[in-house]
């Protein structure tokens, strides 16, 4: 888990004052004579601390941000609603649970004018099979063969039912066979000179401070691309400098943590400066289910209303995030997967009186001093661990501890290093702590990782992901059903039942969603995804760029 970026509002205010900034200072033209956006300024372009020209899509650690606009996948997922959109493939069919057939789009050309076809798709997949160092997403853990049957058909064969790997194989970026088949060592190939792709942009210029990509006029859906250039900027000045630039209107789009985003950004140019922070992964209270009283279902159910999720959102997360659904799903985006009979999309309110009554009814009364007693008649005392350097989590843990203390528990907060914290969580050396799960469009992984028994381990041994040590045959059965289901209705039926297990059996207690940072300006371009129009998530760059249009256009 990466340490969240933490910058104080005071430090940013000092930086703003020192720079003498009093408002937005972005200058320059916005729309060209032919009705196009002249250029957009974006934030960082990746490549590490010393970026070099690298447009190899299979070297993600050092590849530059242009890669996502140069190369395209078979399908593009709207990761807000988790819906696949046809892209280089126009359709797909499961012949059987192990055999997936893609229909490849006609009329697509590489930027050097060569035609794109099924051979390029099969070559790209088999390139990763031949050079395992390039298979960073692990597609060949699931595949046994990828074959071009004809110029417009690709068949993928999986080693076992492959529904759970559909998103993975759908999103692999495709490279041109006629170029890459001549490369002597694809593992070290940086593709730095005139990279050839099918994408909407080509590389125009690069230096360690700025990367510029230009519109591909021969793109297969060029009519949807209304931006002539995107200019990415290296954030080598650090977070405070990037925030300063954002506040001055120097970025048309960026994605970063900003304290008090309304004051630091929106209020400086409220007509054009906007943000949207849709929910990501779920942060939950993990209880060690091998220890009493956490192994008692009635105890866990009683705690579901014990935590003030809204206060955590407001005080620990700057009000940027929403309380999470007990179902384990990300709502409202994934609400289509919810059982219709679950009220309020599974988001539970704060009701300490109910939690107190439910605990007492479950056999955990208070003594005369107000201390909550276990079934052995002794006061319940336990620890809550949180990484000491993760300030937002520490604040959230403080609220959780206060909520539990008000119910009569004695809770000691411990603040180990992140490394020690993650080790203790993995081996089960804890009473209670925070854990993150879900948030992707792979429903199998969202539930399998935190809940499947094969992701657990005996106490003292490192679990892969099931850190609470949840063991339930019904859960495993549903996860297996989800793994093999190629029909969406069957997938949704399995997810619905897993959601009910989360609600009824309480293997963990979701509290809040992590935010996906997304700031944007509408002075030059409109059509950005937003809370009012959530057609994509931040990071769904191919969907976003095909929806942007000049400001003032209809």
Automatic annotation (TrEMBL):
Its main location: membrane. It is found in: Cell membrane. InterPro entries: Peptide/Ni-bd, SBP_5, SBP_5_CS, SBP_5_dom. Residues 83-453 form the Solute-binding protein family domain. SUPFAM superfamilies: Periplasmic binding protein-like II. It holds the Pfam family SBP_bac_5. It is a lipid-anchor. Keywords: Signal. Residues 1-19 form the signal peptide. Belongs to the bacterial solute-binding protein 5 family. This is ABC transporter substrate-binding protein. The lineage of its organism: Bacteria, Bacillati, Actinomycetota, Actinomycetes, Micromonosporales.
């Amino acid at each position: 888990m990466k340490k969240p970026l933490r910058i104080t509002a005071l430090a940013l205010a000092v930086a703003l004052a020192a720079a003498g900034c009093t408002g937005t200072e972005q200058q320059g033209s916005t729309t060209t004579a032919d009705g196009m956006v002249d250029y957009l300024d974006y934030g960082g372009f990746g490549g590490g601390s010393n970026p070099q020209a690298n447009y190899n899509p299979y070297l993600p650690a050092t590849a530059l941000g242009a890669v996502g606009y140069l190369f395209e996948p078979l399908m593009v997922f709207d990761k807000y609603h988790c819906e696949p959109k046809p892209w280089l493939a126009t359709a797909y069919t499961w012949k059987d649970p192990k055999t997936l057939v893609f229909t490849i789009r006609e009329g697509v050309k590489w930027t050097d004018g060569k035609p794109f076809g099924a051979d390029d798709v099969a070559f790209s997949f088999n390139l990763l099979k031949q050079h395992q160092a390039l298979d960073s997403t692990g597609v060949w853990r699931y595949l046994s063969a990828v074959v071009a049957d004809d110029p417009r058909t690709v068949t993928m064969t999986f080693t076992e039912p492959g529904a759970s790997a559909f998103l993975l194989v759908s999103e692999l970026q495709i490279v041109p066979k006629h170029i890459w088949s001549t490369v002597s060592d694809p593992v070290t190939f940086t593709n730095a000179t005139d990279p050839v792709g099918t994408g909407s942009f080509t590389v125009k210029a690069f230096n360690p401070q700025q990367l510029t990509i230009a519109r591909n006029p021969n793109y297969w859906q060029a009519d949807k691309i209304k931006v002539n250039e995107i200019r990415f900027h290296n954030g080598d000045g650090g977070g405070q400098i990037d925030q300063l630039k954002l506040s001055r209107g120097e970025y048309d789009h960026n994605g970063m943590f900003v304290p008090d985003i309304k004051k630091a950004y929106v209020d400086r140019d409220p007509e054009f400066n906007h943000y949207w922070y849709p929910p990501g992964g779920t942060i939950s209270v993990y209880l060690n289910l091998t220890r009493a009283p956490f192994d008692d279902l009635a105890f866990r159910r009683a705690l579901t209303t014990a935590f003030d999720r809204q206060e955590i959102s407001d005080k620990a997360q700057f009000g940027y995030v929403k309380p999470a659904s007990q179902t384990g799903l990300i709502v409202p985006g994934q609400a289509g997967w919810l059982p219709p009979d679950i009220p309020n999309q599974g988001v539970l309110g704060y009701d300490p009186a109910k939690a107190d009554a439910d605990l007492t009814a479950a056999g955990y009364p208070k003594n005369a001093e107000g201390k909550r007693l276990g079934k052995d008649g002794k006061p319940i005392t336990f620890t809550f661990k949180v990484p000491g350097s993760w300030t937002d989590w520490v604040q959230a843990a403080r609220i959780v501890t206060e909520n539990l203390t008000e119910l009569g528990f004695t809770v000691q907060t411990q603040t180990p290093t992140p490394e020690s914290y993650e080790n203790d969580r993995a081996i089960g050396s804890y009473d209670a702590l925070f854990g993150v799960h879900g948030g992707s469009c792979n429903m199998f992984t969202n539930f399998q990782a935190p809940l499947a028994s094969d992701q657990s381990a005996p106490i003292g041994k490192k679990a892969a992901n099931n850190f609470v040590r949840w063991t339930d045959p019904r859960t495993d059965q549903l996860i297996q059903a989800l793994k093999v289901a190629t029909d969406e209705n069957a997938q949704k039926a399995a997810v619905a039942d897993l959601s009910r297990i989360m609600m009824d059996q309480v293997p963990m207690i979701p509290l809040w969603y992590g935010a996906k940072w997304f700031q944007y300006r509408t002075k030059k371009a409109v059509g950005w995804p937003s809370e009012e129009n959530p057609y994509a998530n931040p990071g769904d760059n191919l969907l976003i760029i095909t929806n942007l249009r000049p400001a003032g256009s209809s």
